[in-house]
Fold this protein.
Amino acid sequence: MITRQPIVAVMGHVDHGKTSLLDTIRGTAVAKKEAGFITQHVGASEIPASVITDICKDSLAKMKINLTIPGLLFIDTPGHEAFTNLRERGGSIADIAILVVDITQGFQPQTIESIKILRQYKTPFILAANKIDLIRGWNPQPTVSFSESLTKQNDAVQIKLDEQLYNIVGKLSEMGIESERYDRVLDFTKQVAIVPVSAKTREGMSELILFLTGLSQRFLEQQLKIEVKGDGKGSILEVKEERGLGMTVDVILYDGTIRKNDTIIFGTQNGAAETKIRALLKPKLAGEMKDASDKYAYVDEVHAASGIKIFAPGLDGALSGSPLLVASSDPEKKKLQEKEITDQIKSILFQSDAAGVIVRADTLGSAEAITKLLLSNNISVKQSGVGRVSKKDAIDARAVQNENRRLGVILCFNVSVSDDAQIEADKSKVPILSSNIIYALLDKYNEWLMQEKERERVSVIENLPHPAKIRILPNCCFRVNKPAVFGVEVVGGKLRKKASLMLPDGTEIGEVKAIQHDKKSIDEATSSMQVAISIDGITFGKDVHEGDILYTRIGKREGDELKKKGKDILSPPELDLVDEIMRITSKSILLCRIRENKRFRLRGLFSSFSL
């Protein structure tokens, strides 16, 4: 057993300096090492322990830290990909993370998304408060140490820095996370360390690397133990075509060893597949390249933790985010490996018979993360897949709309939409909601849902009678007939112009021609309002009387539709009123049928007498 270097992911909002920070960490290491170069991997960069010692020499001695890890392996792909793509059985293979926040801008949407992902995977992290050089009055210093630079800043700048830091502390607190500036942390198991840095001036790089190293050694010691001679285990970061080679996969190897000619097992849309490695490639150092095409060196084996490019036949269908395993020489164990990957693929990329939204994402991990997010918010998913949106997706979403209009939606993350899919979606009025932020997809769907509910509400209001129960007020008859005008109070529901009214026994009264309130014409009157209404064809005192209760007339078909569509539109009392009106309508229909039957029997009786 050996201790491997921890795998470090860098996350944060766009333009907050993730890439710059990575470049600065690499650049700082190069500058400090002088001779040679930082070790380059495919998709990762390694800072060996010797370079860490050189950068953090004074701090290590002061804090009495003895390095036990061989270095730090930084994943070069910033953002959520480090988590959604680099996974082992649903968990991220990143051991620790740096969350980059622009100290002048604070939390932004992708900052919040990053924290949610970190919490989901229970990954420890350090917050790098970047761009301290932009604080008004900051005097950049030729040092990689924040604490050394801070002593050269005036009091006003130090106060301003603290104000900005405590804005971040406050935002983290709102999310239930305790935090503090790294040198004020009392308990690293309960508080997130905030390290002020500048990717531009390199100030703070020493403390950032020091605390990444120290926390990794202190809290991740057991999970960094690996069997270097064991079969390699990795995760596919990217599938891409390399000129002169063909299709390749970039892999982060996090356990064991992988060798040329090994048989590897990986995931495809259809489950596990296998192939034999023809070549393992690692990037050449800048000085070793003869020309731009001479980028890679061929190696015979690679140990964890490392990034490696693999060339082999049959990689065209490989999925980004899929596990990649060196096949066991034991046939039974190999079958278990294949089953494990196939089961994982099928649990993420699926199609069900139930109504639900359709998910399309760029990688296996992204599809899994989005599906989990939707299901945790009680949104059913019909299909989850990798790749661009197809015409079939639009057709399937249209079929879902026929069953449940609110689920007939396509949600896509970092993928394109084919032309025929867009044409079909436009024709079928299927919404395609896209985002490059996982959690923003949920927000977009909820926003669309609210708009859809409003459209349905308007549709119900415009096309169906609204339930209303009114009482005729005493001493408020303004005209007896032609038309009858009298005062009423809305007891329940909503009375609308042109509503057809009936008595409690189902007797039709007539249609509301107009409604007046405070001598002004209105289109509807809500519960508790007292208004004057006019109805043609009746006589007050004969057809209706003071104190009478009247209802809007709602037929069976209209009532059924109201109850079906009105759950999110009508209030519970209004839904109860629909039931009350339906009972009256049903009873009235039944009585009419009984009377018709009686008349029919009497006619038959008279006919027999006449004979």
Residues 33-37 have pLDDT under 50 and may be disordered. The CA atoms of residues 357 and 409 lie 5 Å apart. The radius of gyration is 35 Å.
